[in-house]
Design goal:
392 residues, alpha/beta, Rossmann fold, 2 domains, 8-stranded mixed beta sheet, 6-stranded parallel beta sheet, 16 strands, 17% strand
Amino acid sequence: MRPLRILIGADTFPPDVNGAARFAERLAGGLAGRGHDVHVVAPSPDATAHRAVPHPGADGVRVHRVRSHRYPLHDSFRVCFPWQASPATAALVEDLQPDVVHVQAHFVVGRGTAVAASRAGVPLVATNHFMPENLFGHAKVPHVLQQAAARWAWRDLARVYGLAGVVTAPTERAAGLLADAAGIDGALPISCGIDSARYAGGAESPEPTVLFVGRLDEEKRVDELLRAFAALPAAGARLEIVGDGSRREAWTALAARLGIADRVTFHGFVDEETLVAAYRRCAVFAMPGIAELQSLVTLEAMSAGKPVVAADAMALPHLVRPGRNGWLYTPGDVDGLSAALGALLADPATRARMGAASREIVAGHALDATLDRFEDVYTEVAGRVATGLRVA
């Protein structure tokens, strides 16, 4: 296809560490690698705004930063004010005159970019990575109000994404959730994609290790993983936890109370090289989260040839085939999680067989295929606008 000027609107982008930020970075880098002129607008990691800064994590990508502010209830979380982000994103759309805008969220920056594109008649694509559970910990929403807050959040998403010509989600389950919760029918399931070759290679550490990677927030259910690990034999295994979040201090204290602090390592945020090494040396990857629309880290672990034990929740069953590349367990069933981990830790042959199956399954999520799909989507939505067809 002809080179396009693409503006990606993201409310989270590296140096943020989360699945949505990593996907936006890989999408931008992949599109730039195919010759497109790619720009990203995202919150600044500090209090200043920047224009057209080359992104070190993706050659050829220029990032435009909207002024952000520290969120007082979470050390690593920053927010943009609508009255600053809206004019900034509108000016950027006017200056760049993109061929297509692709927003990754309906929050402040994504909303401003979507509205600006709609008003300017620019083809608009929207991808959803949002579940209300992902934000309840940051926003400190009381449990008694969470159901009402979730309904409001889905309605708000529908108002913004209703502007888009095409809406996508990472999996069929995620697309179904958009239909059920937000009334958005016809969302296209397009995998986030993975460059699996980056994670291949290496060998298990001599001491079998269970690995978790992700934000340490409530919906990730790492407390269940800690309790399951504590029920395993005291010798011969370790648990590594990569990531940070609002529950790190509480879960570190829980590991101490369970008597497993000497066998659990909380690494915090790590660089890409260290993360890849953690995938390669682990024996089993565990994902107890209940709000995964795809789980990029699970794709990464599978690319490293690892069996996966995951909660039977949301989109994780799309990746984990019980008995083939791992096991699913009912969320909250700590005994079931412990039994699955214990069985795999005690059986190197089964780990090897399931790890090979993980590599086979993940081949269906190749990043090149994802880029192909999005290029097709951009062509489709641009064609609708060019011919004057209704795009929403």
